[in-house]
Amino acid sequence: MDNVIGLEIIEVVEQAAIASARWMGKGEKDIADQVAVEAMRERMNKIHMRGRIVIGEGERDDAPMLYIGEHVGICTQEDAHLVCNPEELVEIDIAVDPCEGTNLVAYGQNGSMAVLAISEKGGLFAAPDFYMKKLAAPPAAKGKVDINKSATENLKILAECLDRSIAELVVVVMKRDRHTELIQEIRDAGARVSLISDGDVSAAISCAFSGTNVHALMGIGAAPEGVISAAAMRALGGHFQGQLIYDPAVVKTGLIGESKEANLARLTEMGIHDPDRVYSAEELAGGETVLFAACGITPGSLMRGVRFFSGGARTQSLVISTQSKTARFVDTIHMFETPKRPKALQLV
């Protein structure tokens, strides 16, 4: 699959990022998301593949594009038999977040990106639109920290694994009321806290790279984004665990489903019979081959945001593959029209 899709998945996230970046700082988060969805879907439908959205913009009634269950790619179209050989075609599942961190784009803040993960059919956990308790940590701590341990215990383990003092550790936590006690515990243990308003996929992945000054992600965020994070962390060898949160009283910010009981019933309907199970990265993204791609919309710890110049734009993307065991940073100049001056292609 890595060879079949190749460079094209990079272009998918690049086009979504460019479209969304045009709305950076304009206070229109819904439009920033909508244009990213449209651009991602348009480019995805030009790829020679048969894809199915397993994590997307929501149920079909609420999301006209990239909804859960939608089929994308040239080989899903009516005239597919003219260009696609069913015997040679690999069906793939796709998890997308065309604008991860819509508020970040709307208000010109760092950390937003266009992101997707793909695997062969059945290779990605079809997470419900619930919340998820998450723990991400560097490869050195893989299998040693544990989501069932307290933050204090995990910080001690993390410090030992990284040969640092706890005071040197930075933990990313989303700024939410539900995290008040967690934030205080991390601070009391001696570590530093980096609060973010949105966009925990970037924070999770940053744990796997040296030099980002991010050593762990803790707390509760959206479950679909947890699967996307897990795909990247599995390929990078980092630690990631996730546990579904189905009780509205825990998240304190609203949840799909009117009650804990209704949410449990929904999970049962989806075939999830152990709602309290802790999933590893290998379970959330368990396909034989997993690809992850992201492109910065606004600047982040891993990638620069979209930069426009006269007649074009420059993007920075990240592509991670379990098949080739690589993490590639891709710097791309997009020429919308013929540059009037050579300096348009200079480093910016």
Give me the secondary-structure topology.
Blueprint: H1 2-5, H2 8-21, H3 29-44, E1 50-55, E2 71-72, E3 91-100, H4 102-106, E4 113-120, E5 131-137, H5 151-162, E6 170-174, H6 180-189, E7 192-196, H7 200-206, E8 216-222, H8 223-236, E9 239-245, H9 248-251, H10 260-269, E10 278-280, H11 281-284, E11 290-296, E12 307-309, E13 312-321, E14 326-335
Parallel strand pairs: 1-3, 6-7, 6-8
Antiparallel strand pairs: 1-2, 3-4, 4-11, 5-8, 5-9, 9-10, 11-13, 12-13, 13-14
Helix pairs in contact: 2-3, 7-8
Please, could you describe this protein's structure?
Helices cover 29% and strands 26% of the residues. By secondary structure, it is an alpha+beta fold. The protein folds into 2 domains: 2-121 and 288-345, 2-Layer Sandwich (Fructose-1,6-Bisphosphatase, Chain A, domain 1); 131-284, D-Maltodextrin-Binding Protein, domain 2 (3-Layer(aba) Sandwich). The strands form 2 sheets. Strands 1, 2, 3, 4, 11, 12, 13 and 14 form an 8-stranded mixed β-sheet that branches. It has a 6-stranded mixed β-sheet with strand order 7-6-8-5-9-10, sandwiched between helices. It is globular. Belongs to the FBPase class 2 family.
Quick structural summary:
Belongs to the FBPase class 2 family. This protein is 29% helix and 26% strand.
Biggest sheet record = 8 strands, mixed
Mean pLDDT: 91
Terminal-residue CA separation = 34 Å
Which homologous superfamily in CATH is the superfamily of the largest domain?
Fructose-1,6-Bisphosphatase, subunit A, domain 1
CATH topology of the largest domain: Fructose-1,6-Bisphosphatase, Chain A, domain 1
Question: How large is the share of residues in beta strands?
Answer: 25-35%
The CATH class of the largest domain is identified as: Alpha Beta
Structural class: alpha+beta
Give Rg in angstroms. Answer: 20 Å
Q: Total number of β-strand segments?
A: 14
Order of helices and strands: HHHEEEHEEHEHEHEHEHHEHEEEE
CATH architectural name of the largest domain: 2-Layer Sandwich
